[in-house]
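Run log, item B.
One chain of 722 residues. Sequence copied directly from the ordering sheet:
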Amino acid sequence: MSAHTTFQTTVAAAPRARASRASRGAARARRPTARTAAVAERASRRSRARTRPRPRARLGEGDGGGIFSRERRANGGEGARGRARGPLESAAAGDALIRSNHRLTKGDSRFLDEAAAEGTGNAVARDEIRNIAIIAHVDHGKTTLVDSMLAQSKVFRENEKVEERIMDSNDLERERGITILSKNTAVTYKDKKINIIDTPGHADFGGEVERVLNMVDGVLLLVDSVEGPMPQTRFVLKKALEIGLKVVVVVNKIDRDGARPDYVVDNTFDLFCNLGATDEQCEFPVVYASGFQGIAGMEPDELADNLEPLFEMICNDVPAPVADVNAPLQMLVTNLDYDEFKGRIALGRVRAGTMTKASNVKVGVPGKDARNGKVSEVFIYNNFIRSPVDSVGAGDICAIAGLDDVMIGETIMVDGAEPLPTITVEEPTVRMSMSVNTSPFAGQEGKYVTSRNLKARLDQELERNLALKVEPGDTADTFILCGRGALHITILIETMRREGYEFTIGPPEVITKQDEEGRKVEPYEEAYVEVPEEYTGSCVDLFANRKGAMLDLMTDDKGNTKMKYKVPTRGLLGLRNAILTATRGTAVLNTNFDEYGAWAGDISMRDNGSLVAHETGQVTSYALQSAQDRGILIVKPGDEVYAGQVVGVHQRSGDLKVNVCKKKAATNVRSNKDATVVLNESKDMSLDDCVEYISQDELVEVTPLNIRITKNPKMKTRNKKN
């Protein structure tokens, strides 16, 4: 019995999301000539793209058949691919598999469902459930759209106060305005339960996206109606296509000034083709929406008063999960949560069988012995909360408590079932060192300061952060953190700082490898920059100094220049602040990992040296008056500093020691009035700014109350020995 509330609406039901090509073409033909010409051009490009040769592996290895037309799917999908699936003989399961025939590849959610049900012959499509993930580039409106979907599903009371971006429940997410962790929720539309997973949009948190995609059968790909596909759009779409998920394109923010939906859809189609999508994948359904206003429609100028067209498209185009509820239990753990009363909570999708409360289970991975356990409670996502239930059938997403040692990637099963393949994500590309704080102010502000505390906290983070790796450092009190990017690691650092930890971190470095011929290779990224035309020269110079190779340059009619570069990841370290300074804060920089390439040689990361405190004490206005002529200060009068701490940015290359604690001498000579001290505004350095600024001989001291930059004492000792 469903506990979900039914989606309420007063608007007439929207037409079928996927209209026939003829009807859609006829509707567009009634528009103005310019738009009709654009549509005709897009149709011509799609026709040419369909004639391109496709990789055979994409069409299914050894199946002997091609891509089925919609007519053949409507007639039951008779053909080589439909007959090949022996264990899935039921009509509902066969039809569901034929609709997604290109998705039967190892590692995707459909493959896992079939592997779980293999040999039972009772797998059916659970039409009452839809599992979707919302993927997009950062700031394209994923969380805002989920807010509107929850609001229109009557999740909240009419008099209930609801915050914006309610899915971004983490303090850091609200402060930075980005999604960091993937989160689950569920709504009910008519008679169907829709499990929704909100994913991060930043490239550094791509591991969160890869980890949850195996739980869903389709994705909503959000694309901004003005910007179009962006670097992270390419990354998340590539992962969805590799897994074989059904993609529904949502042109979001359609109410923005300057919206260009035809341009966005054309570029999205080109992106599908560039990523090697099949013909069926290129025929993606499109819906136009405004997540902020909570409206959607099948055409950009024909929007309903709510999101019902979007819900209809999800129900009609995203396939239902195929599973056997009577088979032996199999559930792959995809995420972990923690409750103060229930302990560790494991989240995942039930692949086969039924997860029952107070049942005895086994936990294991392929190739290793399984251990015994007991499930104490079972939960489902009921609107915006976890609701306890007695059992959950295959194909649904649930959370369980009682297994205190379960890990992400392990399979929860019963006797007679085999563990499912574990979860794998892409390798990290950047590393940073973390060590115990040894500065003169060590231990004064932090609660957890020892290496044992740091190791225990990092081990805890490794349990749920699959994209993070921790390696031992040169000494017992040093750890090497490896992640997708500097932001990926600094988010962990900021979280630990707020939890009361105190430590120091070193500068970010790229992770190099050796190719097959023994040559040194390093990671390269694609950088997309959008700047006003008058600052184009400054950006070109910055990228040239950092070994960047220009791939494309285009200037629109509004005077904005878009540039695309391929640049070593080393060259991007500290580049964001340099570009913002050179362009007066008008530049927009986005990056995405591309590949490992040949070592680019030496790169000059910083031209300016540092101003270093000469002695320990309290900063005085009198001392800063003379010190500010040497560069830009990052300390204020009254701050406590110690010898060796960085107090400013030198205006020249090389470091310079300054005395910022000098006091005015007290003499017996009286004056009518002391000279007024006028100081320049000091620069406020955040954690991200400090990480980008430091060089190889500097460290960032992180405490719950302060963030300081200091010279590395180990590096100083090493230089003396050399």
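Observations after the first pass:
- The first helix runs from residue 21 to 29.
- Residues 610-694 form a domain with the OB fold (Dihydrolipoamide Acetyltransferase, E2P) fold (CATH 2.40.50.250).
Flagged for discussion on Thursday.
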